[in-house]
Amino acid sequence: MGNQWKHAFVFHLFIFFFLLTGVQLVQSSSHHHHHRLLSKLFVFGDSYADTGNNQKSTSRSWKVPYGTTFPGEPAGRFSDGRVLTDYVASFLGIETPVAYRWREVEADRMRYGINFAFGGTGVFDTVVPPDPNVTMTKQIDFFQQLIDDGVYSKSDLDSSVALISLAGNDYTTYVAMNGSAEGFSTFTASVINQLAINLKRIHGMGVKKFAVIAIPPFGCLPQATILSSYQQCNETINKISIYHNLFLQEAVDKLNNENKGSTFIILDLYNAFISTFKRQKDHPGSMEFGNPLKPCCESINSKYLCGQTDENGVPMYTACENPKSAFFWDEVHLSQEGCLAVYSLLEDSLHQLYL
After folding, report:
1. Which residues form the signal peptide (predicted)?
2. Which domains does the chain have, with CATH numbers?
């Protein structure tokens, strides 16, 4: 009898333990229970991460039809809704950090970090500079100033993540300045080299966790696929992205080796885009996107872009009825739905920030 009782006790103990851990598991997955360790997000980069830093008067991110899905009006995001910054913040279990430009207006949101990303930014000066013209170096200067002013303490920085979204605008600039195919590899090396210097500088300020975005397949962006009536990606242009991302991987591996106790991860946007397209192709009926290469908001005249009007204020674009059915929002940016699809494929990588 004693033995039976012992078995029953062990069994109940096991059930109790299972329930206990089960509850914890539910807690951690439903709202990242362990995620309290990382309570701030500092964002650097370009329009894939910008949440409202560009000038209201000049940037199309503040004009209709941007922001139609979220928050319901233009709010400075280059999308119909949320961008990567919003999803990474929600992964960390925090609110989206305030855009640097609005830090005084929404000072309470500075406790979640700050977003320094400006649409149009590069590691170097770009042909379509943000207004005002801000490079990544300048964004880090803003950050340094806040630290010098005592806005963020050492423990704030210890429990923070830096999200870096950069490189597209540097290549657009290289091409616009008639950079040659021969000079391309040297240019890529200089972009990655500068990016590594920037990451080291942020790391030196006290940030230990980094999520660095790899560049998407440039040849699949609507500005490239329009030439095939949105039917196929341009593989030649995609090689630029592949080459850059290869160098980026090397630089990030080196940073991880040199800085034990810090974590640098890559968010592989390239493969996230490609697998979304592939999934759509393999299961055309089951996916929400009609033609993933076609943007929701298209310009009517190549002189204009989504969100722009002619001199009489007539819209020079057409926007689709349902942005949810589009992977791309405009000629280079994701829709909120596209961003969510990509984010869901990047989520696993983000868990590495907790290792």
Report:
1. 1-28
2. 35-284+337-354 (3.40.50.1110)
